[in-house]
Amino acid sequence: MNEISLNKKICRLCDAPSLQSFLDLGRMPIANAFLTSEQLKDTEFTFNLEVGFCEKCFIVQLIDMVEPNKLFHENYAYFSSISSVMDNHFADLANEINTEIFYDPTLSVIEIGSNDGILLSKLTGYALNTIGIEPSANVASAARKQGLNVISRFFDSSLAVELSEKYNAAQLVVGTNVLCHIPDLNELAKSLNIVLDDEGVFIFEDPYLLEIMHKLAYDQIYDEHYYYFSVTALQVLFARHGLRLFKVEPISVHGGSMRIYGCKLSSKRSTDESVVRQLAIEDEQGISNLSSYLVFADKVQQSRSSLVELLHKLKDEGKSLVGYAASSKGTVILNYCGINTDILDYVYDNTPSKQGLYTPGTHIPIVSTDNFSSDKPDYAFILAWNHMEEIVAKEEEFRNQGGKFVTHIPEARVV
Ligand code: SAM
Ligand code: TMP
């Protein structure tokens, strides 16, 4: 079985019958399941992309999930190192960790979801014993080629026990854009307790729920993201397992994320005022009220209407339209808004493994960004708005020759 359906009322994390569905984006293919030309005739796997809010523990979660091993495998499409912005971001994070978190060179450092080694390679420069945990074999292998120590498995409590037997306790467990990928966060918290030193720290960075709601970034909602985090919900989750958030930091990457720092309840680390401040902001924004999510869902539907209207208007004017970036978010936008080859001729992308394939569900051909400006499309709809700055800067020639970009965040417009 690849699709796990919840009893729609039961929260996956706290088991309370308090889960309220608030947004249904319809049947959806796997966001990163790009297709070969031979696969176009096959029936694609789809699942119902529906999101709920737990009124008891405040976590926002997918109601139906696709099993992790169908998403994270030897053909995982996302190589973290494609973005130079992210590379700089991780260099800054490694530097901060080195100065503020490391305290004992004999203790280990574990990165969950180390992908192609973008952060692990930098941590290795500062720490002695670094271990990457990465279930997707292809990206894990890219990291190993750089000489990094990577275990190609899902992080869970049995692996945590093995790690604690083989290595010294962890002074740091870090995971960027991976916490939201882990279906059983109670198991994750249990695993943290096993590997962490008593004064050890965990750091996670994930897309931030309030940013998703403010920007109407419904395209952050897809199969790989089982959860959408507020500090409020994370605090409840970790407290249940004897863990404490001691600092939080909003960061700009991936369209607005939150970096959280945590430790064991008994740790000597004091709790920073940033935690109290962020909890107050969330309270003020109604993060614990179902009504906030219902308002968001209404606005998402309006956002779809105005995007579809804009793209049809340009098409009716006889303009040529393409997509830019065959992203996972793009799969959600294209399928939810019903945008296919009637509107977009191609989707341009700089990932070699995606070129020559077709977008999931909507079957638009993916081609190399090398030919983007010389093909001279009139409009390019950015399907990875989180990378917009980098893309616009890179494609100066396209703009110089009169090409225009379209975005749908925070509203549909030509930029
Ligand atoms: N950390 C990188 C970054 O921020 O660019 C990669 C993020 S990528 C979106 C998520 C990664 O987490 C994937 O490489 C995936 O294979 C890995 N992953 C998913 N579930 C995991 C789990 N339970 N344990 C460890 N890694 C996992
Ligand atoms: P993601 O949002 O699923 O990570 O995908 C982002 C996609 O954007 C990825 O396939 C690569 C593509 N991309 C470009 O084509 N050009 C760029 O400059 C950047 C930053 C990303």
Describe this structure in words.
- This protein is α/β, with parallel strands linked by helices and 415 residues long.
- The protein folds into two domains: 80-285, Vaccinia Virus protein VP39 (Rossmann fold, 3-Layer(aba) Sandwich), CATH 3.40.50; 292-414, NAD(P)-binding Rossmann-like Domain (Rossmann fold).
- It has 14 helices and 19 strands.
- The strands form four sheets. The chain has a seven-stranded mixed sheet.
- Strand 7, helix 4 (137-144) and strand 8 form a beta-alpha-beta unit.
- Helix 5 runs parallel beside helix 6.
- It is globular and about 65 Å long.
- 47% of the residues are buried.
- Bound molecules: S-adenosylmethionine and thymidine-5'-phosphate.
- The site of thymidine-5'-phosphate has 18 residues, from helix 11 and helix 13.
- The site of S-adenosylmethionine has 22 residues, from loops.
Query: How is the CATH topology of the largest domain named?
Result: Rossmann fold
Task: Name the CATH superfamily assignment of the largest domain.
Answer: Vaccinia Virus protein VP39
Radius of gyration over all CA atoms, rounded: 21 Å
Structural class: alpha/beta
Low-confidence stretches: none
**Coarse morphology:** globular
